Amino acid sequence: MMTYPSYLVMQLLFAYWGFTTVFLFWAPMIKAARMIGGQEKQGKTFSFLDGGRGLVASSIGVIGVIIFSILITTDISTANIQEKQNAFKYVIAVSSILVFLSGIIVYTFLKVEISDDEKIGDFKNMKKLLKSKSIFLISFIILCAYMGYKITDIYSLYASEVMMYDQIDAAKIGAYQQYLRPIVCISVGLFSDKTGNINNIMYGFIIMLIGSILFASGIINSSVNTLFLISLIIVAVGTYAIRGLYFSILNDGDIPIALSGTAIGIVSIIGYSPDIFATPLYGYLLDAYPGIKGHQIIYVILGVSSVIGLITTLKFKKLVK
To answer: How far, in Å, CA of 62 to CA of 131, rounded?
Structure first.
């Protein structure tokens, strides 16, 4: 990527990264977290996991912004494409080194004991899993929550296009809001197992809905900077609270540890489908409706997702009661 290859090569690169992260990494990580959490600490384990992921992501984001701003010696608005490319190479290099070191650390230190009956289920149990209502309800809870998470990709765009921040300050907004993720996830994780993971997911959708209504109303513009920051925090709090908990309810849905990999595969195909359509959809809307209008439509979509997520959560709660 540091060579700034052709569009075709970039597509192949992203396919390669998709294989290494989703195929090799994702299901084993979630299964390991389930086993570490045991029966009593699923909420805490998954919330702390996502909080840690958020802390790493926000730190790398801030490091990237710092490296980029240091290496751009001229004003960002006057820097040419060559200067930006030269600076961004170092951002890519540092990120790559951190990922590589993480792989070595995990291979060396992460030890999870797996008993024989937790390793794999038989096909009969897998068929039963595919008929499980709880699996598909969890899938749609994740899908609706992930629509909110995809909004975090355009916080910086809202800051630059609507709030009139410059490129550096807009990028900082995108990076700094990531620090809410560990704060929210860890805070929720401390009490979630006692108050009920599914209850806190429900509250998360309500909070996300409130934030989306504020943005969709169109009242947040460059003249109300404080309201912009408050509304951003509201949406982020709701999003990250749900994100830290949605895998913790696999136990509530009576999904056996042995079938975790299969369950996570099914759930992820549906739940993370916004990775396929949300970004192109948001991009189209922002191009078709420039300025605040496009952002309003996106937050209307988020509001609808919040309502659907809330209804699905209530159905799941009723199912496992």
So the answer is: 44
User: How far lies 41's CA from each of 46, 80, 245, 275, in Å?
Assistant: 9, 51, 11, 29
238-247: b or e for each residue (b if 16 or more CB lie within 10 Å)? Answer: bbbbbbbbbb
3-state SS track over 160-220: HHCCCCCHHHHHHHHHHHHHHHHHHHHHHHHHHHHHCHHHHHHHHHHHHHHHHHHHHCCCC
Cβ atoms within 10 A of the Cβ of 105, count? 10
Question: Contact, 250 vs 138, CB < 8 A?
Answer: yes
Domains delineated in the chain = 7-320 (1.20.1250.20)
What is the model's pLDDT at position 122?
A: 60
Structure tokens, 248: 């913790």
Prediction pTM value: 0.83
Listed as ranges, residues in the chain with pLDDT below 50 are none
**Could you give the C-alpha distances from 165 to 33, 138, 236, in angstroms and in order?**
39, 38, 20
